[in-house]
Amino acid sequence: MARVPPLEHFSITVDKTVDFHAKFLCTIYGVKICVTTDSKRAKEHIITLLNGLPSSSSSASSEADIELDIFTRAGSLQDPHLPPYVERALEPRSLFKTHRTKDKCYVVLGNSWLCLSLKNRTGIGVLEESIWSYHWIILQHFFLGGLCLLLRTCGRFLFHAAGLEHNGKGYLILGKSGAGKSTTTLSLVRHGWKYLGDDALLLHQAGSHIEAFGIPVNFKADDQTTNRLFKNINENLAIKITHDANFPYFSKRYLMIDKLYPNQFKGHSIPNFLLFTRPTSQEKSELALMRKSEALKGVIEASPHFSLDSDNVDLLSTLVRQTTAYQLLAGKDVFENPRGFEELLLNGCQ
User: Fold this and answer.
1) Are 35 and 122 in contact (CB under 8 A)?
2) Per-residue pLDDT of the chain (350 residues; tens, 9 = 90+)
3) Which of 84, 129, 195, 329 has the smallest number of CB atoms closer than 10 Å to its CB?
4) What is the pTM of this model?
């Protein structure tokens, strides 16, 4: 496989005093990924992350390969710095931030960062020692965020939705933050439904239809939802990150969904239904059929702001055409009568 030249503005040299150098290949979502690093910790975290993603035996062409080089400042990069215009754009610096220029994306965590060339499908990461003081869940978001941006260049588009499968049918649950996606998804997973994820998926055009790839990160739930669904849950299974208030979802608990419900993760599914959820105070949930035009508007609004280009709009249009969309008014039965709520979905979604 031909090596893609390093990103511009950086000089790569091999420091022979560095006693660790790892290069590993994997195929994820049908895309071949090559990672090179001089950090044992980075290798462990990335391999753990990749091992949790759906692997694929299908081959990818050389044009679809992704190359990611991750180094420590003391390792193989010569005095690397973020460009000044990126530094200015990140002020005031928050814990975790993404910045996009014309042809690059920067994912920043504290003083560590990834510089991603979307055109060349390559990335360079620079890790400060301080990065290892962050919780592993935050590190997971950092590395996964960069990987998803590069996967987008291979036709795997990040999509803000929860994903479920039951009896061979795929369900995508959409809504704004706080609309109850995770709560609805958890309620059904507890009754045996397969899950792709509770907040983010990857969409891919496979021939004439769209398929959804699962991202098996930990589900997020507030204290009220956690206590109602899981009484006296072990703290190791419902982790709360309290020391990083600038991190997204810092006030929520991260549920170890793979330990709570082993063998229920679904690597990919073909969506059949779109459920636009909205919480209500009524006793029973309701389903209302939506027009295709309403559904398209809804899925566009649910998409990450950085990926709304013509290719993505075409993909979302195909998604709407292949699915039936409903407005889901989620009532108290999501908690109080989950079996009845499940029957509503199974009987109502046609």
Assistant:
1) no
2) 333 333 333 333 334 444 567 887 888 888 888 888 888 888 888 888 888 887 754 444 444 479 898 988 665 555 567 777 777 776 665 677 888 887 788 998 888 899 999 888 999 998 988 889 888 888 888 999 899 889 988 888 889 899 999 999 999 999 877 677 888 899 899 989 999 998 889 999 988 899 999 988 888 888 888 888 888 888 888 888 765 656 655 678 888 998 999 889 998 999 999 999 998 889 999 999 999 999 999 998 887 654 556 667 888 999 999 999 999 999 998 888 989 999 999 999 98
3) 84
4) 0.85
